[in-house]
Amino acid sequence: MASYGTLDLATDRTTVRTLLHEAIPLTGAIISGGAGDGAVSTYNEENIKNFTHGQFQSVYDYPYLSSSANHIFDLSVGYSAESAYSSSTSTQNAKKINNYNQFAQVLLGYTGSSGVVRRFESDLSLDKVGSMDSCFFVSLSRLLTKDQIKKGSFSIKIGTGSYGSPWPTGSDNPADHILTLSDVSASNTGGTKNVQGGDYGLLYDTIATPTTRAKGVIFYQAGIVVITSSIFDNMGAADHSTQRFFFSGSAVDKIGEFSCSGALTGAAISASCDALRHRIYNMSFNNTTEINSTIYFCRAPASRFNYSSNPTYVSGSKIRVKDVASDTPVSYITTIGLYNDQFELLALAKLSEPIKKDPTNELTLRVRLDY
Fold first, then answer.
1. What is the dihedral of CA 178, 181, 184, 188, to 10 degrees?
2. Same structural domain for residues 308 and 261?
3. Which residue among 238, 255, 289 closes a domain?
4. Residue 164 burial (10 A CB sphere; 0-12, 13-18, 19+)
5. Do 222 and 81 sit in the same domain of this protein?
6. Could you tell me if residue 7 is inside a domain?
7. How many alpha carbons fall within 13 Å on the CB side of residue 330?
8. pTM score
């Protein structure tokens, strides 16, 4: 049987928020089929699901038809209607424009009274300087990101070699063929801003100086990474003078500069997604799980809760735990129940072991409800 007390919600209750982080490494062996050995295998293509609508592809950690497969992320590509790539002759032109507009509407919203969709920009300013008119979109699964991605923890390494060998080996240093993008300037206290899609951080080339224009944007709460397609322009400038660069399944000779415009206009969305995916060396970030808690301080002063209303507490009108009538009363606290003002039980907390209570001591028991 219970003994009741009243909580003063002004002084006996408080709330707290706790952020839990988990490191998520996504290796190239899962994403691209490569293990960083310079070549890409095709064994994991069963992990990739392409849809009949052709607007994006999904990546799984196991063959997607397997019951144990977990969805990791979706890949898509798109460009603005104002982009130079937009043309009635471009493959899946309308779908690529729709992809771009959909992400821009959800993450950035509209600009001006005319309701024009705001375009992605490398600094997300409003002056249209450095507009990212053609982008790759990586939509990470909620299974991995939880409530949000931890600011300052994201990194993606993208190979700059050919489609079949994005990370050359031998006399070439693989590190020279890997572009690393990271939100190095972001943190929980600064370096991030807020837009319609939540907080965002800019993705910089970690080798370049911090003042270099960003090459992508990460939206932490949405779990979406936007990478400008211009990272593939001038690809291989430090490589051999001639390079075989595969984008849409056919080889493109690169002498001097290379632009991926032909791939974006002449390739299907799934082929462009394959081109990026086969170059992902690895990806890593820390996710965030937000736990909100209400803490109740249940106080047992010296003069209260020294008796139990449990029928077994007495035997023959005598308290079982007293040997002599003059002994002080004593009880053992084992459970705390939280009731509403109608005396309806809402929550129950069990102590790990009974706690002795008598008039010589007072207790404050801390009950925490997580949600």
1. -140
2. no
3. 289
4. middle
5. yes
6. no
7. 13
8. 0.79
- One-letter amino acid of 273: C
Task: Determine the 3-state secondary structure of 313 from DSSP.
Answer: helix
* Same-domain pairing of 187 and 313: no
Sequence-separated (6 or more) residues with CB below 8 Å from residue 352: none
Instruction: Evaluate whether residue 8 is within a structural domain.
Output: no
| Radius of gyration, CA atoms only, the chain | 30
| pLDDT tens-place string over residues 131-140 | 888 999 999 9
The total of structural domains in the chain comes to 2
Helix (H) or strand (E) holding 335: strand 331-339
Any idea which residue has 């949000």 for tokens? 148
Structural domain includes residue 13: no
Q: What is the pLDDT of residues 92-106, one digit of tens each?
A: 999 999 999 999 999
Helix (H, G, I), strand (E, B) or coil at 368: strand
Question: Do 271 and 330 fall within a single domain?
Answer: no
Q: Are residues 174 and 32 in the same domain?
A: yes
**Residue that the structure tokens 């053992």 belong to:** 332
Residue at token pair 């209303």: 309
Asked if residue 10 is part of any domain, the answer here is: no
Per-residue model confidence as pLDDT tens digits over 210-260? 555 688 999 999 999 999 988 877 554 443 333 333 333 333 333 333 445
Contacts (Cβ under 8 Å, ≥6 apart) of 331: 305, 306, 307, 308, 313, 321, 356, 357, 358
Question: The domain containing residue 334 runs over which residues?
Answer: 301-370
